[in-house]
C-alpha cells in the first residue's frame, strides 16, 4: 500500500450487518423477548457492560432486566453473594428467555461452576459445557432435547455438518460469543472464503491465536481449525498446532465428526507470526504487546483483549486491524436469544 | 498433655476402617468391578498415584486397568494428547465401572472441562458438575436418572436429608473424594459427634479451611457447614464465613434444602485460627506454613496438601495432627465404584 498503513476496521459496520436481521426477527415474534443480566460485583467494567447490553437491547426491541445482587446491590454484601440463587430463579422463570451473567466474579474455577448452573436453554453466551463439548467435537447442530442430557455422545449420523442450515428437528448449537465474533470478523474481511464449502471456509489459512483459555482461546482455535485453518495456539507455557482431522484418516476416527487434532509445536512465537495470515490476541494484560516487526506483511490483526495487545504501529505491517470485537460479541449474544 | 505433644495420626487406621467393608461388598457382587485409570502426562506424582491405585485395587479385589495416552504413552506426544477420546471410550465401554483421570493435565480451566466429559455414572472422584451442585445445595440423595439431566432443580421433597440411609429409589450423591476424606477424619477423631442428628454432627465446631478451590476447599467448606459447623474459608484474597441456613430463616428459602450461606468475614487469619477447633490446610505450595503459635490449644490439624502446610512443632499446640489424607481419599474413591 502506498501509505504503508493498513486499514483500521471498527466493529460497528460488522455488527451492523446483523442488527437488521435481529430487529426483523424479534419484531416478527408473537411475544417480546426478555434478557436478564445478572450483576453481582462492584466491578466498573461489568456495570459498563451491563449498561451497554441494555442500550443494545433497547435498540433491537428486546426487553432487558438487570438483576443486581451481592456487592452490586449493596456495598456491605460480598462480591458475588446471592448470584447462584439469582441464576436459579431466572432459570425457573418462564418469562425469561436469556440469561447473561457478568463475569469475572469469583475467579475461573468457581465462575466455571456457575456457568454450568445457567440453563443451557437460556445460555446466550454459549458458556455451558454442552456447547463447548459440541464445539470441540465439531457438532454443529443438535436436537434441543439433547441439551437436557449430561452425557454427549458424538455421532456423525445425528449431527451432519456439511450443510449450513440445520436439518429438520435440529437447531444450531450455540457457539461461545467471543470466538463467534472473531469468526464473523474473518467472514467480513474475506479470510473465510464463501466460495469454499461450508465447514471448510478457512482452508489454506494459517492463524495464530494468542491465549488458550476455555472462554476464548481454546474454543476459538478449535472453531477455526474445524473450519479448515491451520491454527497455532500460543499460551504462556506452550505452543500447539490445531489442524482438522481428515475425514478418512483412520477407521477408528470414523464414528466421530471430522474435527481438529492437537499436537505440540516446536515453533517459536516469532516463527508462528512470520507465517500467519491472521493474528488474534486475547491476553488480559496491559503490558502484553505483539511485536509488529514479527508480523507477516499484509496480515489481518484482531485484538480481542480489553487491553491493546498490538503495538501502535501494527498497521505498518497489517493490511487490516480490528482493535475491538465487543460490539460484535454482544450482537452475537442477542442473536442467540 | 504432660509431654506437650499432640498425637500424630496416620491415615492407615482411618482408611482401614473402610477396607473390610469394601472387600466384603466387592466379593458379594456377581461380576468383578473394573476401574480404569487414565494417565496422560509425564508427571511423576501422577504415575506414582496410578501405581498406588493399582495396589489398592488389587488388595480389595477390584480390577484395575491403566490407560496411557499422550506424553505418558510416548514422550514425543504432547502432555494430555488423546485424553478426551480415551475418556469417551471408557464412558462407552460397559465393562468399565469407574474412571479416574490423573489431574492436573492442562491447567484448571481445561481440566474442569474434561471433568464434565467423564460420565457421572462412572465418576468415582465426584468431580462432575452434578455432584458439586448437589453438594452445594445439600442434596444428599438422588434418583439415578436425574444424573442424566443437565439442569438441577433443588427440591427438598425429592431429596430428604434428615436420614442417613437413602430413601427408596435414591442413592447417595457422590461427594468429591478429598473433602469426604476430611469428613471421615473428623468422624474418626470424634469432631463429628454421633450423638447429634445426621446432618448436624459438626454443630458447635468452628473449622478453618485454608484454600477455596473447586476441587477441595470450597466443597469442603460447604460440606462441613451443611453439617452444622461454622467454617472460616481462607483464600489468598479473602476470608469468608460459611454457616448453615436455618431451616425456617425465611419463607423464600423454604423451597431449598437448608444449606450453607456465605458471607464476607472481617476476621484475620490469626483471629480465625485462635477460635478454630479444627484447621484444614490444602495450599499447593512448599513454602506455605500455618503458624503454630496462632493455633488454639488442643485443636485438630489436618494437612491435605501434597506439601507440608504445618510447621514441624504443630503438635506443641494441636492435640491431634493428621499429616496426609491421600490413603483415605483413595479408599473413598473405590467405595464410590
From TrEMBL, chains A, B:
<dbReference type="GO" id="GO:0004487">
    <property type="term" value="F:methylenetetrahydrofolate dehydrogenase (NAD+) activity"/>
</dbReference>
<dbReference type="GO" id="GO:0005829">
    <property type="term" value="C:cytosol"/>
</dbReference>
<dbReference type="InterPro" id="IPR036291">
    <property type="entry name" value="NAD(P)-bd_dom_sf"/>
</dbReference>
<dbReference type="GO" id="GO:0004488">
    <property type="term" value="F:methylenetetrahydrofolate dehydrogenase (NADP+) activity"/>
</dbReference>
<dbReference type="GO" id="GO:0009113">
    <property type="term" value="P:purine nucleobase biosynthetic process"/>
</dbReference>
<protein>
    <submittedName>
        <fullName>Methylenetetrahydrofolate dehydrogenase</fullName>
    </submittedName>
</protein>
<dbReference type="Pfam" id="PF02882">
    <property type="entry name" value="THF_DHG_CYH_C"/>
</dbReference>
<feature type="domain" description="Tetrahydrofolate dehydrogenase/cyclohydrolase NAD(P)-binding">
    <location>
        <begin position="176"/>
        <end position="243"/>
    </location>
</feature>
<feature type="domain" description="Tetrahydrofolate dehydrogenase/cyclohydrolase catalytic">
    <location>
        <begin position="9"/>
        <end position="125"/>
    </location>
</feature>
<dbReference type="InterPro" id="IPR046346">
    <property type="entry name" value="Aminoacid_DH-like_N_sf"/>
</dbReference>
<dbReference type="Pfam" id="PF00763">
    <property type="entry name" value="THF_DHG_CYH"/>
</dbReference>
<dbReference type="InterPro" id="IPR020630">
    <property type="entry name" value="THF_DH/CycHdrlase_cat_dom"/>
</dbReference>
<dbReference type="InterPro" id="IPR020631">
    <property type="entry name" value="THF_DH/CycHdrlase_NAD-bd_dom"/>
</dbReference>
Amino acid at each position: 500500500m502506498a501509505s504503508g498503513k493498513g486499514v483500521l476496521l471498527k466493529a460497528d459496520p460488522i455488527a451492523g450487518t446483523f442488527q437488521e436481521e435481529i430487529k426483523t426477527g424479534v419484531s416478527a415474534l408473537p411475544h417480546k423477548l426478555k434478557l436478564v443480566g445478572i450483576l453481582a460485583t462492584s466491578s466498573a467494567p461489568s456495570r459498563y457492560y451491563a449498561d451497554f447490553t441494555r442500550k443494545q437491547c433497547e435498540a433491537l426491541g428486546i426487553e432487558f432486566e438487570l438483576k443486581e445482587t451481592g456487592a452490586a446491590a449493596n456495598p456491605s454484601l460480598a462480591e458475588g453473594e446471592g448470584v447462584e440463587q439469582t441464576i436459579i430463579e431466572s432459570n425457573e422463570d418462564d418469562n425469561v428467555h436469556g440469561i447473561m451473567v457478568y463475569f469475572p466474579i469469583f475467579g475461573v474455577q468457581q465462575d466455571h461452576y456457575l456457568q454450568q448452573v445457567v440453563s443451557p436453554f437460556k445460555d446466550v453466551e454459549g458458556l455451558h459445557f454442552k456447547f463447548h463439548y459440541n464445539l470441540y467435537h465439531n457438532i454443529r447442530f443438535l436436537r434441543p432435547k439433547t441439551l437436557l442430557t449430561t452425557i454427549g455422545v458424538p455421532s456423525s449420523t445425528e449431527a451432519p455438518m456439511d450443510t449450513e442450515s440445520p436439518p429438520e428437528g435440529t437447531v444450531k448449537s450455540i457457539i461461545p460469543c467471543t470466538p463467534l465474533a472473531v469468526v464473523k470478523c474473518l467472514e467480513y474481511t474475506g479470510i473465510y472464503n464463501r466460495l469454499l464449502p461450508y465447514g471448510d471456509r478457512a482452508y489454506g489459512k494459517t492463524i495464530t491465536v494468542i491465549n488458550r483459555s476455555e472462554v476464548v482461546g481454546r474454543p476459538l482455535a478449535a472453531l477455526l481449525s474445524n473450519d479448515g485453518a491451520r491454527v497455532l495456539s500460543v499460551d504462556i507455557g506452550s505452543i500447539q498446532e490445531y489442524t482438522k482431522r481428515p475425514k478418512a484418516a483412520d477407521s477408528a476416527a470414523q464414528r466421530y465428526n471430522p474435527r481438529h487434532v492437537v499436537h505440540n509445536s516446536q515453533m517459536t512465537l516469532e516463527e508462528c507470526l512470520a507465517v500467519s495470515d491472521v493474528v488474534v490476541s486475547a491476553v488480559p494484560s496491559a503490558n502484553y504487546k505483539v511485536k509488529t516487526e514479527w508480523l507477516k506483511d499484509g496480515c489481518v490483526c484482531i485484538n480481542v483483549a480489553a487491553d491493546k495487545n498490538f503495538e501502535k504501529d501494527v498497521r505498518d505491517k497489517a493490511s487490516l486491524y480490528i482493535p475491538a470485537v465487543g460490539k460484535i460479541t454482544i450482537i452475537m449474544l442477542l442473536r442467540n436469544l
